[in-house]
Amino acid sequence: GQTPLKSPQDIEVYVENTHLVLRWNYTGNDTDVTFSAEYRWSEDFEISKTNWEELPGCQNVTRTACGFSLDVTNYYDPHDVRVRAERRGEVSPWSSTFEMTPYYIVLAIPIDPPGIKLQSINGVIKIKVSPPEVNQVQRMLLMQQNFRYNLVIWKNLSNAELKSRSIFPDDTIDDLTPDTTYCLKVQATLPLHSLESLFSPVCCVKTTRKVKDPLCATNVRVLALNMKFYLHWNNQYKQHVSYNVQYLLGYIRELDSSYSTKWLNVPGCENITDTQCNFSSLITPSGFYYLRVQAKSGFNKSCLSNEVKVDPLKTNDIGPPGVKVDISGDGLLHIQISPPGGSEREVMRDQYDLSYRILYWKNSSNNEEEIKMKETKQTIGTVSDLTPSTTYCVKVQAFSKAYNKNSSYSEEECIKTPGDKISSLIILATFASALVAVCLVATPLVFVLYQAYNKIKYVFFPSCQPPLNIEDFGRQLFISPYLSTPEEPIENCSVIEPVITEVVNQIDFDDYKHSKQSSRDSGNYSNEDDASGSKASEETLGREIL
């Protein structure tokens, strides 16, 4: 005759002290009612419809709440929870299922503000931050995490500008105006969990004037190009001074509050008198570092400079790439790019994920020539649609989108494209045709001139002379048969047979005959019309000899 038991309602889970607390409402008027809860979970996040288990700490409880705990390794898994009422073997239907992930419930707990301590000394403010107090359950989940701290600072004036920066648990705030009151507050954060604490109470402190020690190195700065890192500083000390450059790994400063004893000397930069130090050998792209300069003089006096932070990939500057250009046989302009960095080019290329901006233009006297641009991630680029017989110039810039860094442009490289092949063939054909035409006209002309030259030379400058005995005999003028001459009168002579004595010089006569025969062979006296004259001369010669 009793009323059936009702199911619990409005289930929720929250954190209290060191436990998770399950709470519900029960609207029945029944007495002697107890409550029990069950849960289920799955490592692969696939909740099963079976395998419900009793929730430890929440069995046969008389209140409408119970505290329970789970292994901390299970805090990241989703769970289903349900509750029912029980009375002397009678049970109510199960409540509606409440889904929860303990990790997110813990993260919803507000984090208390951190504690801070301030000290104003020598123109700076030294601050020490203590982590916020956390719940025991929070500590179980967050014990492996380290808080980071955000500082907000401003001058204690009306309408003062608020400035924010990240600080370490033990840090120094410099670049402050002397004799000025500054106010500040600090907030703790857990970036991995996207958690933020409340801000600490506002604290104010007045700065002092900084006592300048001329021994200290000033204007400490880092110059880096293509992963080559140099630390530079200024020396204001008038006497002999030596320097030790010291470094500290960034993670040590973040994790170890006693980091002041962990500074190390940079190899090669110990007891130096120069005002620069090459510390490239220390650098790995994945880390970050702090550097400072310790100045030392006689009498064991020393002074430490301000610290500078080095985040390699952010501090380093990208140098210009190398460029080579060439024209291929198919008329394309090929651009070969060498990543900047020399021996460190692979680090530069891989860490910065470099891209290249190519500028190219026609190198002409026209200043209005359009400069064209193309971007590529490859180290080889091509340009088409080139004008023949034109000089093109190229320069390249390397840039990294991830780090928002640009290099300066490379030196200009210029190259001239070859002439048009069709125009070249036309010019060649025209030249060959003109050469053939000149040869056809010049050859007959040269032949005619050559023949005329030979005739003139033959007439006026004969190559052979008449024999001396003929030349002396009567000094007769030999006339060329090719020239017309006036007829000479010929006397009518009769032949008288002389009596030739034996005393004739036969040798001289034979010589004469031999000379006459030679003249005939040369062709000077080949005219048959002169035969009679020759005979008369021969007879006259014979008489003179006698």
UniProtKB/TrEMBL annotation:
GO terms for molecular function: type I interferon receptor activity. GO terms for cellular component: plasma membrane. Residues 319-420 form the Fibronectin type-III domain. Keywords: Membrane, Receptor, Transmembrane, Transmembrane helix. Residues 514-546 are annotated as: Disordered. The chain crosses the membrane at residues 425-450. Pfam families: Interfer-bind, Tissue_fac. Gene3D superfamilies: Immunoglobulins. Residues 536-546 have a biased composition (Basic and acidic residues). It comes from the Eukaryota. This is Interferon alpha/beta receptor 1.
